[in-house]
Amino acid sequence: MSEYVPIVALLLIGVLLGVGLLGISALLGPNRPGGSKGAPYECGLIPLTDARNRFDVKFYLVAMLFILFDIEVVFLYPWAVLYRRLGVLGFVEMLVFLSILLVGFAYVWKKGALEWEA
Amino acid sequence: MDGTGLAISLAKAGFVAFLLLNAVPLLVWLERRGAAFIQDRIGPNRTSIAGFALAGLVQPLADVVKFMFKEDFVPPSANRTFYLLAPIITLIPALMTFAVVPFADVVRIGERLVQMQVADLNVGILYVFAIASLGVYGVVLAGWASNNKYSFLGSVRASAQMISYELSMGLSVLGLVMVFGTLQLDDMVRAQGARLFGVLPLWGIVLQPLGFLLFVISVFAETNRLPFDLAESEAELVVGYHTEYSSMKFATFFMAEYIAMTTGAALIVSLFLGGWQVPFVSSETLNGWTADLLGPGAGSWLAALIQFGSFSAKLGFFLWLFIWVRWTLPRFRYDQLMRLGWKVMLPLALANLLVTAAVLLVIDGAAGR
User: Fold this and answer.
1) How many CA within 13 A on the CB side of residue B206?
2) B200-201 and B195-196 strand pairing
């Protein structure tokens, strides 16, 4: 695990830098709140509704599809590292795996889950 | 790990952080002057310290000072904790991802051989994907916490875009992982020192031209650079997820973007363009020359310096490419972006994977392995 020590060091540098940068402008900058300055910026119009509105369900769909396909990609990584030692068996097994994946992909495509024009 | 080893690895971490942070003002300068050059303007050239404008290099410095003295403003309707946390969360992964990128061959310090890489993790590329994708949380939090419609839309768009292109990014590297049989970037760069027919350097781009193209496009999308800057498309969303951010908080987002860009370019260079390899001169030959000149100790330093120069030159080219593309191509529409990601890049990356697997099977079969 000792090779992770410098990474922790980088993490600490990042945290210190982030907090430091935000701290500097909190310290040096003026602070004069009030009036309509606090209103959310909407190009000069007065905001009528809260920003946290409902939004298109498609974004959820993309996130769900991402999780499915990303897990497939994660499964592919250990296989790829060892591929040249697995020989024909490794190739055939991955063909089976990928064809199952492709059936799912074709289904998603056909169902129109990847369409955005609506 | 003993005391000296610890000191050396901490020094390397500090060096990389220093390098990345100094790349930011340089890139801002390059972006503004480059944009001016492409648009046939002059660009920033007035700011000066004691009469020295240094071709506008003083401008980013002045900008930082200005950012520091701007009002530190938090909108009253914002979710304060997450609002303040978002820029920090965006900055940290950008800074951490560079840790596995090797920037020169080993250097000899006394009896010790020191690898010029912050951490040689055996998970290599997986670490990059794991950490780099955390950046999306900063974007989501910024948009949600700001309580602004533009920020919110920008962040929702950005997160959908980033996760979509992460798929093709992960898949496009797989071909290279198969060829080299390793996830460690240093091993990959070392393997790219070989030559094809004794002439052409056997870089990743030669082995995986399609993978290279897909990876570069994915890096553009992941770093939210034009033509993929849907998150900030200023004509429709003001500036997207950081609309409500000002002062150093805005600058932190800006820094994170440029650091992520540098890391992305460094990954392209390491994976596909031979990293620190000097074209046509293998590391052994180079180390032999410099050892004849200065002895093995100082010679390895000189060789590493030359390799670092080679790495920086390739890196510089890709950073310029990022800027060049930004001021040349128009922005995608959102449906075009999603279609490209899911219906073009993903199938192409899968096809590339299958073709690579088949070709490797034939080659290894012919070699009798």
Assistant:
1) 14
2) antiparallel
For B71, the closest of A9, A32, A116 (CB atoms) is: A32
pLDDT at B369 > cutoff 60: no
What's the rounded Cα separation, in Å, for the pair B282 and B278?
A: 7
Please identify among residues 75-94 of chain B the ones whose CB lies closer than 8 Å to any CB of chain A: 75-77, 84, 87-88, 91-92
Q: How many domains does chain A have?
A: 1
- pLDDT higher than 90, residue B348: yes
Query: Residue A62: inside a domain, yes or no?
Result: yes
Tell me the chain A residues in contact with residue B170 when contact means C-beta distances shorter than 8 Å: 70, 73
Q: Show the tokens assigned to B154.
A: 């920008």
What residue numbers bound the domain in which A94 lies?
A: 2-111
- The one-letter amino acid code at B272 reads F
Does B177 contact A2 at a Cβ distance shorter than 8 Å?
Answer: no
A25 lies in a domain? yes
Does A116 fall in a domain? no
Neighbours of B224 (CB within 10 A): 23
- Show residues of chain B in contact with A9, CB under 8 Å: 9-10, 13-14
Q: How far is B148 from chain A (nearest CA, A)?
A: 5
Q: What is the ipTM of this complex?
A: 0.88
Q: Are B221 and B334 in contact (CB under 8 A)?
A: no
Q: Is residue A58 included in any domain, yes or no?
A: yes
Predicted local distance difference test score (pLDDT) of residue A68: 87
A63 contacts B170? CB cut-off 8 A: no
Q: What percentage of chain B exceeds 90 in pLDDT?
A: 14
* Domains in chain B: boundaries: 3-366
Q: Domain containing A99 — which CATH number?
A: 1.20.58.1610
Question: Which residue out of A84, A94, A117 would a mutagenesis test of the B interface target, given it has the greatest number of B Cβ atoms within 10 Å?
Answer: A84
pTM for the whole structure: 0.90
Alpha-carbon gap, residue B89 to B21, rounded angstroms: 16
Helix axes B296-326, B283-294, angle to 10 degrees: 130
Minimum CA–CA partner of B344 in chain A: A114
Quickly state the pLDDT bin for B368 (edges 50, 70, 90): low
pLDDT in tens, B145-191: 888 888 888 888 888 888 888 888 989 999 889 888 888 888 888 88
**Spatial distance between the Cα atoms of B243 and B139, rounded to a whole number of angstroms:** 12
- The conformation of residue B341, written as its DSSP 8-state character, comes to I
Helix (H) or strand (E) holding B201: strand B200-201
Query: Are B13 and A19 in contact (CB < 8 Å)?
Result: no
